[in-house]
Design goal:
The protein contains five helices and no strands. With 103 residues, the protein is an all-alpha fold. The longest helix has 29 residues, at 3-31.
Length: 103
């Protein structure tokens, strides 16, 4: 083999290795966040408390909703519905009309 062929193979391999590592390090640098992006993410984390509730707050809300549902069920069972009221008043009116006719 000629010296030129060996030299070309070594040079091509060396350039390939250098290009590979350059691309690897530039890709690694590009994958990192900038300071502005980091500050933006910190602000979002700080303001997350304003937008979202914690688990304890959610549990308290669930308990209060359950209490309200229980009270609604009690009200439904102990009060007179409008249909029943109308039926009873109609029956009373009919009885009063019958009494008025008899007199």
């Amino acid at each position: 083999m000629d010296f030129e062929i060996i030299f070309n193979i070594v040079m091509t391999t060396g350039m390939g290795v250098i290009a590979f590592f350059l691309k690897y390090f530039f890709d690694k640098l590009n994958s990192r966040a900038s300071r502005a992006e980091l500050n933006e993410l910190k602000e979002k984390i700080e303001h997350a408390d304003e937008k979202y509730a914690s688990k304890t707050e959610l549990n308290e809300l669930k308990k209060s909703i359950d209490k309200i549902n229980d009270k609604i069920d009690d009200i439904k069972s102990s009060t007179l519905r409008s249909e029943d009221f109308l039926r009873v008043t109609t029956r009373l009116e009919n009885k009063i009309d019958d009494l008025m006719r008899r007199d």
